[in-house]
Amino acid sequence: MSENNFSINRRSSVGVRVGSIMLGGGAPVVVQSMTNTDTVDEVATVEQVAQLARAGSELVRITVNSMEAAKAVAGIRARLDEMGCHVPLVGDFHFNGHKLLTSYPECAKALAKFRINPGNVGHGKKRDEQFATLIETACKYDKPVRIGVNWGSLDPEMLARIMDENAASSNPQDAKYVMREALIASALESAAKAEEIGLNRNKIVLSCKVSGVQDLIMVYRDLAARCDYALHLGLTEAGMGSKGIVASTAALAILLQEGIGDTIRISLTPEPGGSRSREVIVAQEILQTMGLRAFVPLVAACPGCGRTTSTYFQELAESIQAYVRDEMIVWRGQYDGVENMTLAVMGCVVNGPGESKHANIGISLPGSGETPVAPVFVDGQKTVTLKGDNIANEFRAIVDQYVSEKYPRKVV
Description:
TIM Barrel, Sulfite Reductase Hemoprotein, domain 1, 2 domains, 17% strand, elongated, 4-hydroxy-3-methylbut-2-enyl-diphosphate synthase activity (flavodoxin), oxidoreductase, iron-sulfur, 4-hydroxy-3-methylbut-2-en-1-yl diphosphate synthase activity (ferredoxin)
């Protein structure tokens, strides 16, 4: 339910427990991410997993692609637990997962979920045997599985079969339709095989990821209508920077608005030196701005215009946003409901006072030619006027005081 009192009717799906996290079954949409470290490097992987968890990733996936990586998983789990980071780990398997999971049982035990791609588990008879081994291992250790089909790695035999069926049809469809149908068929047929082998429906998550916005929307609408498995959403190879953010938001927002999706990942390519946690923040912001979940206090800020020739309000808005995100790590453990707080940092008298009154805490900075004072509003009431060179620190102190006074402390 959002603050505007509208609701999104979520698609009904079977709930899947991944460690301490519930996917589907009416649970809130879960944010997840993936490391880009070499899993063999335990120290680097632990550091990045912890960073992603602090940013708000509720599940973290790691690559398990070699014997050395499989050997490292249990140590990674132990190191994380020692530092108090209990985020569930998902193992990402391609090509040789059947060998790694059976050869290294400690790896299988340490992971909270397995991710497998039916297009990358072998061909012909070997595919069936190796897929069965993966599913049997999941059953043995009571682990859920994401059956993740990707546009770029479809099972060629299935694709050929569907292409032949389409060609023989009295009303053949275009190539893109065939590809979409092959994705969905691969996911659903693999899920059916997993159930035949013994994996319960409440241990299965499906995904059908592509890199085109319209294709993703059409695939998931169809997939959602044809099953009740929990669904993982994500635009694969979304790209870098604004392109990746815009494309992911355009696709996922439409599906989420239609109630489709139980967990999401924003697959951003980090810019050189950029933080991996950026994709976590984007995922949270999509869910929060849509009114589906709340993670951190939202900061409203005007874009600036000729009335605001100073960049001070931009700098203050940026610093406040960074401040509340950093402080939220502490506040989350101490107070209930802080994530619902709203802040406003406005740059002139046109919309400044009005917007500030609508936020829990708002500040209206002076624009060009205006009196050099900044009124602060708390829950709609003007409480103080700031001026001078210490406005940023004074405003942060007001935020801290509001949090400590307005939100109930958690019982430890």
